[in-house]
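Hi U.,

Before I forget, here's the chain from the pilot set. I'm dumping it here mostly so it's searchable later in email.
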Amino acid sequence: MALRENIDAKIVTKKHFVRVLDNFSSGKPQPEILALEKWFDIGFGRHRIRGKIDRIDRENGKIIIMDYKSHREKLPKAELMDDLQMSIYRLAAEKHF
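Structure:
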């Protein structure tokens, strides 16, 4: 199954929040928040995967999946394909957005 090109993953760190606050205070456009703590339930044959995505934004026509629990800020596309958690989040986002 090919994943849509307009869905990215971003693993959020403190540095990201500082940048968001700087952008907000300077009047720069903010991303559209599509969901916070979005629960999902997707099926794979006889199996189901349920979980929660911390935040989903739309920015410049792209869907951005954010995970607040990791140490890196952004996954390169090659790593995204190998990261099970973020790959599941992308599949869930494709079904909802």
